[in-house]
Write a structure and sequence with these properties.
This protein is mainly beta. The chain has helices spanning 32-37, 165-168, and strands spanning 2-5, 12-15, 18-21, 24-27, 46-53, 57-63, 71-77, 79-86, 97-103, 109-112, 116-122, 126-133, 142-144. The chain is globular, with a radius of gyration of 16 Å.
Length: 187
């Protein structure tokens, strides 16, 4: 397993060891011991899988309070552009984002800790996206930032995105509450 930092401290790019032969491939997508060795010490309590059509944008989502979630993301089929936005007030990278193309071919994973909004766009005909969460879904604690916020200026890599009515009601970035304060965050 290869773990690399990104332009935003705390967000990690993970490349699992992949063993390929004429039959296909095998990879270990999660191993608590190996992740702990690399200081990713979180307990996952929920796995989510979504299937989305080309051009779909999901996000930008996060949960607050004692239900804040870290996410370990990967693509099972297809290709996506995965986005993490720093929403930790006082952070040197507040309002900045990282974007990585993840696919069934590159097997890349992204670790996104609490304090970040998350979303992705589908670049292939469809994508199956898996993410492990460090806390359970909570409707009362969920929040969203509008995907096309001009201040964030995210290039989703698609034209004419397909976005849910719920996601279209996301807040503008400059109106989010101070749910995450950088000086109090543990990375």
């Amino acid at each position: 397993m290869e773990i690399n930092g990104t332009n935003i401290p705390g967000v990690l790019q993970i490349r699992p060891d992949v063993f390929e032969d004429s039959r296909g491939y095998f990879l270990e997508s999660f191993n608590e011991f190996r992740f702990s060795e690399n200081r990713i010490e979180n307990h996952f309590v929920q796995d989510n899988i979504s299937r989305s059509a080309r051009g779909t944008v999901r996000g930008l989502h996060y949960q607050v309070g004692d239900k804040a979630q870290g996410k370990l993301c990967q693509v099972i089929a297809g290709s996506v552009l995965d986005i993490a936005v720093d929403i930790r007030f006082g952070s040197p990278t507040f309002g900045k984002h990282v974007a990585f193309q993840m696919s069934e071919e590159n097997h890349m994973q992204l670790w996104i800790p609490p304090g970040f909004a998350h979303g992705f766009s589908v670049l292939s005909d469809y994508a199956i996206f898996l993410y492990k969460c460090t806390d359970l879904y909570s409707k009362q604690h969920e929040r969203a930032i509008i995907y096309n916020d001009p201040q964030l200026n995210i290039n989703w890599g698609i034209d004419n995105p397909i976005v849910s009515d719920k996601d279209l009601k996301g807040k503008p970035f400059n109106e989010i509450d101070r749910d995450f304060i950088y000086s109090e965050m543990k990375i």
